[in-house]
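Quick one: structure tokens for this chain, please?
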Amino acid sequence: MRKTLQGRKLVREYQNSSDQNFLPTLRKVMSKHEIYAKRSLGQHFLLDTNLTDKIARIANVKGSTVIEIGPGPGGLTRSLLMNGAKKIIAIEKDPRCLAALLELQSFYSESLIIVEADAMNIDLSKISSKPFHIVANLPYNISIPLLIGWLQKIKSISQMTLTFQKEVADRLVASPSTKAYGRLSVITQWLCNVNIQFNIDSLAFVPPPKVVSSVVTLLPREKPSAPADWFKLEKVTSAAFNQRRKMLRSSLKKFNLDFPSLGINPTLRAENLTVEQFCQLARSIRG
């Protein structure tokens, strides 16, 4: 009985503390559960508390419901909890990491919910009240498909704070007439205000990836930057950027668009059009 009371006291003291000294270090947790990065899962663990705390502060999670994708051993999860997240739904499919997260849950039984699932196969809008934050250090190999799926459910989301490889982050914020500007830039900026917050050196991760990473915030717009149908916009941007070296009159020939009436020069290339102009083209597609 005495040990049980001491254990409960420890939990209360930890929940009221401003640091994480009551928890074992992440490296000890990883060693205990034999957690090492698997290339097949695209795992690169961020263990630096200064960086995870910085991400949590940028995510502005205080009092919010947060869905964390691929929390791994729980480094960022700890920082989100310490920065006042009301509830965290952690989606993880690695059994080793699930065991580590269950230990953390013993300190935060009311705040931390663990869901064993593959993020590629789950509709986030069905597992949480709306709106919710998404925070994640995304596996590079599935970061774009995940983002596109979330953008299609953007009305359920209040903010996304995501870590991408820098090359992808640059594409998200790219301006027209630049090399990085493409289909992903148009779709994302159509629905969100996007900002790169800071870069993370590869040596901050275990194991280090071969690229620099960037933390990006995506704030959904109250309404899209211009009227357009998702699927028509997806079609026109796909056709245009799949042949980005060709003029619009060639790359978009199959749509039979009347460029003069739209006020768009048909000799321009995809990278020269603004998001609003792509929306204008999408609205002009019949059928």
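The longest helix spans residues 2-15.
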